[in-house]
Specification:
The structure is a single chain. This protein has about 400 residues and is of the alpha/beta class. The protein has 2 domains: about 1-205 and about 380-395, Rossmann fold (3-Layer(aba) Sandwich); about 220-375, Rossmann fold. Helices cover about 45% and strands about 15% of the residues. The chain contains 16 helices and 14 strands. The chain has helices at about 15-30, 50-55, 70-80, 85-90, 95-105, 140-150, 155-175, 185-190, 230-250, 265-270, 290-295, 310-315, 325-330, 345-355, 360-375, 380-395; strands at about 1-5, 35-40, 45-50, 60-65, 110-115, 130-135, 180, 200, 220-225, 255-260, 280, 295-300, 320-325, 340. The strands form 2 sheets. An 8-stranded mixed beta sheet has the order 4-3-2-1-5-6-7-8, sandwiched between helices. A 6-stranded parallel beta sheet has the order 11-10-9-12-13-14, with helices on both faces. α12 (about 310-315) links the parallel β12 and β13 (about 320-325). α14 crosses α15. It starts with a strand and ends with a helix.
């Protein structure tokens, strides 16, 4: 197959979630012998590139087109069309003309478009090409959950406004009547409860050659949580972990530590580092040693959506896990099989204490979780799901 990706930003690893997802998908398709190009916006220019050069690392530029009045397009999208800011920032009408030019030169069996750039194409119908919208995750689900838990009145007002805009944008996507993919069954059910056949679940994969066991590292009496630490769900979860879970456990285990590992910690997260035994790392070159050494990965997310890659990475690295039901909704672990799943602070404290005291149980859960990741989220499994989604769409 010839496949064209149209992405929010340049696909790359490491990067934002949308960048990593596109990079993984492109890499796996190239490995299977497909021809892939990608089109993306960066500042005021659009680039059309050969994906093999991206994977090889030379980033050879195939073609570029400069845009005019980019800021006017953003203003029009946000104020006149009422789309959310996260979508409006990717307003780049030149993409439509660029796509017309590209498809006049080359035929693509599949055109794979990330959802936040879809509004640049008021309608998209290219003869002989299957159009696929990649939601990545249900952003409005994240906003609904955040609205529920936010206590600050000004933040609540801002989240409510963005939520209304995102719902409007998701309705725009549905009206295009295109086939779609999304990362998790929970997000699919939320967006398409009555039209489920229109959406295929294609998760992100976990590179098991990178996220592997390390028996040379011994585990310390420490809790760990990872992620981008200025992202609202992670800020809330890190604060909850330290104040409501770690501190009660610290009274029972005086030598217990808590590691908050991830880039760009907010001021609230940085303050947690002043508490005895808490380490807030900021950016680290390699997150793996923290999970190889920690006794328990604790993820008390109260809002968020999509697939929680951080959990799957921890599982692949052999760390036992205590997590919220919302965290698990994009994964599918079974309580007391692959992880301990709970909702309330007292349950988090009790389950985490159980794993700190029972090494055999912790190792059993960790082993089963790693097997689950290998069975459901390996590169081969996910690549096959993506190709199956493309070919199933062709039959429709």
């Amino acid at each position: 197959m010839n496949i064209l990706f149209i992405t929010h930003r340049m696909p790359k690893v490491p990067g934002k979630g949308d960048q990593v997802r596109a990079f993984q998908q492109i890499k796996s398709l190239l490995k299977k012998g497909h021809t892939v190009h990608f089109l993306f916006q960066e500042k005021d220019e659009a680039y059309w590139c050969c994906a093999s050069s991206l994977i090889d690392g030379d980033q050879e530029e195939k073609h570029k087109l400069k845009a005019k009045n980019k800021h006017f397009s953003i203003i029009r999208s946000f104020f006149l069309k009422g789309y959310p800011l996260s979508v409006s920032l990717h307003s780049f009408p030149v993409l439509k003309a660029f796509l017309t030019s590209i498809t006049s030169q080359m035929h693509y069996d599949v055109i794979h478009i990330q959802s936040k750039v879809l509004h640049n194409f008021s309608s998209i119908n290219i003869a002989g090409s299957t159009i696929v919208v990649d939601y990545i995750d249900a952003i409005s689900l994240n906003l609904e959950r955040r609205y529920k838990w936010t206590k600050n009145p000004l933040e609540k007002l801002a989240v409510r406004g963005e939520l209304g805009r995102m719902k409007k944008y998701e309705e725009f996507i549905k009206r295009q009547d295109l086939k779609a993919i999304i990362t998790s069954p929970a997000d699919k059910k939320f967006l398409y409860s009555r039209r489920a056949r229109e959406v295929d679940v294609v998760p992100n994969y976990i590179d098991l050659s990178y996220f592997h066991l390390n028996h040379l590292e011994s585990r310390k009496k420490a809790l760990v949580f990872t992620g981008t630490m200025n992202y609202a769900p992670n800020v809330d979860a890190a604060t909850r972990l330290v104040k409501d879970i770690y501190l009660p456990l610290k009274e029972k285990f005086p030598d217990l530590e808590c590691w908050i590992v991830g880039t760009s910690p907010s001021s609230d997260v940085q303050k947690l580092g002043k508490i005895s035994g808490v380490i807030v790392t900021g950016f680290v070159e390699d997150i793996r040693p923290w999970q190889w050494k920690a006794a328990v990965y604790v993820c008390p997310l109260r809002f968020g959506a999509g697939q929680q890659n951080k959990i799957l990475e921890a599982a692949a690295l052999g760390c036992s896990i205590v997590m919220s039901t919302i965290t698990n909704s994009g994964i599918g672990f079974t309580h007391n099989e692959e992880a301990l799943i709970c909702e309330y602070n007292k349950e988090f404290v009790a389950h985490t204490e159980q794993l700190l005291r029972n090494k055999e149980l912790a190792e059993s859960l960790a082993g089963k979780a790693r097997q689950f990741v290998a069975s459901h989220f390996s590169e081969k499994v996910v690549a096959d799901q993506l190709i199956a989604a493309y070919t199933e769409m062709d039959r429709h």
